[in-house]
Backbone:
């Protein structure tokens, strides 16, 4: 399937679906008329229409109109949705679930046998095409489907494939990780306010600092420890600040945060 | 070239052992002096073939390169003692923590217009030729003096020149560093023993692990953070252990240690600069023997408080 010709459907019209749609369409790789989005209410469908996508209230219509289907609903809704659309899912379809905690085994159980299933864990910055996405192939999904997904989602950010066992860790690191970064940014700003800066300005500067550092980190290809060392002039301000961070046990706290989020993802996946 | 050591304690012993193992100087060309002949290091030095004397003046007279390897608060006594014996050929290298070049030069210019002084900070692993040494050159030291010292100290480990104001930080890091390592090794061995290893094996393996890691780092262009990553397989034993280290504030403890040692070094130096230290603070045998040397007299007699750096009597005459 050529990415430009593949017909894509979304069941669910939330932020994740929107972020992915935006990424796919903005790159020009997919034609808007080849995208169909389904949601029970019209609330969220407007922004998809603005992009030129087709919208519907019928999940089965979205499935029928597409070959690649993104299942982008809240995890607890997945079983009901799959039962509803299963009769319309053929061997030609590729089902990509974005639902947190729903395993490939569960998906394959609820869909007809021989269904091609992939599981994708994106993160919020997909909405601005700076997502970190990890996907895993189900038992019937071949390298071709993996490559297709990777090409299609490329405009959304970083797309990597991995075994399903990595998806929970990805959730902890990058799905929840976004919130950890927001917390850090907020604390940076608070520090600025403490030292005399107005909060609105401090927050904008904190955001830009995180963004700028993130870009340098991503694009330099160098180890973060090396980049950190490079900023630390002997006896300078940065090394003093870093010492305070180490005293505060920031590293252990962050490792613990990723661990806790991952464990919770695993727990949820078992339920 | 003859080398002399004023002081025959741990430092002198370690340096002599290293120099002779490196073959940079023959032991019969080395002289060491100390008023205290009971020190265990004294017999060690004698056994190595070093000429030993109780007279610092004799050591000064018989040497070209003179290491001051005594405790910081003894330095002023020593300088008063050997001051008159310093010749143009002499290169004075102070190894005393916290003692500034300028304080030594101030003392010595009373006796000689342009004393060649250098200051170095080394550490105990010179004894196995894996020392870490930095040195700073004084006002009248020449370029070849620095090169000579560097050659000597490079034979027993790493040696480089620095600006004097960095020496306290070096003390905190590599001067005290071996103590941090010994502490870590002791604890690592405890961990090994807890998990069932015999003590001797645990110590051996722990030491080798740190030695090997240090060697890898020194040989590598990579950041230690990258080398750490290379050891930590995903979800493996090492990363679990590292999380514990981080939770315990391992990194900040080490930063604190280096900082504390550096700050204390500065404190000790400024105490020395400003205050008088009573003779009681100095080992009695040492002081008595120093004062017995011909040509040495303390201001106001041995029982009075002695001003270390003679700031009140800059022009005090010597017989």
Residues:
């Amino acid at each position: 399937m050529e990415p430009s010709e593949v017909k894509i459907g979304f069941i669910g019209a939330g932020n994740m679906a929107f972020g992915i749609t935006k990424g796919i369409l903005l790159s020009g790789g997919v034609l808007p008329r080849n995208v169909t989005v389904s949601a029970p209410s019209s609330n969220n469908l407007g922004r998809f229409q603005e992009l030129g996508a087709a919208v519907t209230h019928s999940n089965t219509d979205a499935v029928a109109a597409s070959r690649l289907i993104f299942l982008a609903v809240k995890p607890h809704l997945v079983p009901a949705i799959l039962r509803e659309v299963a009769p319309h899912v053929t061997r030609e379809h590729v089902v990509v679930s974005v639902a947190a905690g729903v395993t490939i085994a569960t998906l394959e159980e609820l869909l007809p046998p021989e269904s091609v299933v992939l599981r994708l864990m994106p993160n919020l910055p997909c909405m601005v095409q700076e997502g970190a996405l990890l996907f895993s192939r189900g038992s019937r999904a071949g390298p071709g489907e993996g490559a297709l997904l990777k090409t299609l989602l490329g405009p959304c950010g970083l797309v990597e494939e991995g075994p399903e066992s990595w998806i929970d860790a990805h959730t902890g690191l990058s799905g929840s990780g976004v919130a950890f970064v927001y917390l850090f940014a907020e604390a940076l700003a608070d520090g600025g306010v403490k030292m005399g800066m107005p909060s609105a300005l401090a927050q904008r500067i904190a955001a830009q600092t995180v963004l700028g550092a993130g870009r340098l980190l991503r694009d330099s290809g160098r180890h973060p420890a090396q980049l950190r060392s490079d900023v630390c002039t002997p006896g300078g301000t940065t090394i003093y600040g870093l010492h305070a961070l180490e005293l505060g046990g920031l590293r252990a706290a962050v490792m613990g945060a990723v661990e806790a989020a991952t464990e919770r993802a695993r727990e949820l996946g078992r339920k | 070239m003859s080398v002399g050591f004023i002081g025959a304690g741990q430092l002198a012993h370690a340096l002599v052992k290293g120099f002779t193992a490196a073959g940079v100087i023959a032991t019969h060309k080395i002289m060491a002096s100390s008023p205290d002949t009971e020190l265990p290091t004294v017999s060690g030095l004698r056994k190595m073939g070093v000429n030993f004397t109780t007279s610092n003046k004799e050591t000064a007279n018989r040497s070209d390169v003179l290491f001051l390897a005594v405790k910081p608060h003894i330095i002023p006594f020593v300088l008063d003692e050997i001051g008159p014996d310093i010749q143009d050929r002499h290169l004075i290298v102070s190894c005393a923590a916290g003692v500034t070049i300028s304080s030594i030069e101030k003392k010595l210019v009373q006796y000689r217009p342009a004393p060649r002084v250098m200051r170095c900070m080394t550490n105990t692993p010179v004894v196995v030729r894996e020392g870490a040494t930095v040195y700073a050159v004084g006002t009248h030291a020449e370029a070849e003096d620095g090169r000579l010292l560097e050659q000597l100290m490079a034979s027993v480990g790493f040696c480089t020149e620095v600006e004097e104001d960095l020496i306290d930080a070096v003390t905190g890091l590599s001067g005290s560093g071996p103590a941090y390592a010994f502490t870590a090794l002791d604890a690592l061995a405890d961990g090994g023993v807890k998990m069932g290893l015999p003590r001797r094996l645990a110590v051996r393996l722990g030491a080798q692990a740190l030695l090997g890691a240090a060697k890898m780092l020194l040989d590598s262009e990579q950041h230690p953070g990258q080398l750490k990553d290379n050891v930590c397989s995903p979800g493996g034993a090492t990363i679990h252990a590292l999380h514990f280290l981080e939770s315990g504030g391992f990194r900040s403890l080490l930063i604190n240690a280096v900082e504390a040692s550096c700050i204390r070094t500065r404190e000790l130096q400024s105490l020395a600069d400003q205050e008088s230290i009573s003779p009681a603070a100095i080992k009695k045998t040492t002081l008595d023997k120093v004062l017995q040397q011909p040509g040495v007299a303390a201001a106001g007699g041995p029982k009075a408080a002695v001003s270390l750096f003679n700031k009140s009597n800059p022009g005090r005459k010597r017989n």
Remarks:
- The longest strand of chain B covers residues 131-137.
- The domain at 3-167 of chain B is CATH 3.40.50.720 (Rossmann fold).
